[in-house]
Amino acid sequence: MLDSLVTSKTRIKLLLKFFSHNNSGYLRSLAKEFDESTNSVRVELNRLTEAGLLTSGEEGKTKVYRANQAHPFFEEITNMVSKFLGLDTLMEQVVRRMGDVQKAYIIGDYAKGIDSGTVEMVLIGNDLDLDYLEFLKSKTFEKTKRKVKVHLFTEDPGDVSGIMVFGSGG
Question: Superkingdom of the source (predicted)?
Fold first, then answer.
């Protein structure tokens, strides 16, 4: 979907990075992360900044870019990126139908805005439906070509480095 609307692969990577969560980045680190030339990343960063989708600011001697949360399309782009990644549907189904889910986190690469092909989740709850979880994992892979790795806990383990929190059950 997103790749049919946006033809630049570098721009797609930047949108995924900045709009999957409130990430920030600077030119050289983004070029290295995406395995792209600094010039191609710079061109796309400039285009997205000129369009008002990104903001930039100085941190020391480094120019750091972030998604512009004040942009009128910020929420819509965030929702499109989430749908593209398949996270919204996955998390909604997990929280709604898995049983007593108290908290659900996306951790790892996706929480950092990196599309690595594996979605890593932490579920905290009691009496979770493990058969349904296996079904969701296979369906998610079938639809999005992304693996799902799940860590289950009956109580909050503390700092799980969970960046994206998706809700709580009853």
Answer: Bacteria
- If one counts every other C-beta atom within 10 angstroms of the C-beta of residue 112, the result is 18
Question: Is the CB of residue 30 less than 8 Å from the CB of residue 40?
Answer: no
CATH topology for 86-165 is Alpha-Beta Plaits (3.30.70)
**What are the C-alpha distances in Å from 126 to residues 35, 102, 133, 156?**
42, 8, 13, 11
- The structure's pTM equals 0.56
Indicate if the pLDDT at residue 62 is higher than 90: yes
Compute the distance between CA of residue 66 and CA of residue 24 in angstroms, rounded to an integer. Answer: 5
Sheet with 100-107, side-by-side order of all strands: 147-153, 118-126, 100-107, 164-165
Q: How confident is the model at residue 5 (pLDDT cuts 50, 70, 90)?
A: low
Strands 100-107, 118-126: pairing kind: antiparallel
β-strands 62-67, 100-107 pairing = unpaired
- C-beta of residue 93 within 8 angstroms of C-beta of residue 136: yes
pLDDT tens per residue across span 12-59: 888 888 887 667 899 999 999 888 999 999 999 999 999 999 999 999
Break the chain into its structural domains and give their ranges: 2-77, 86-165
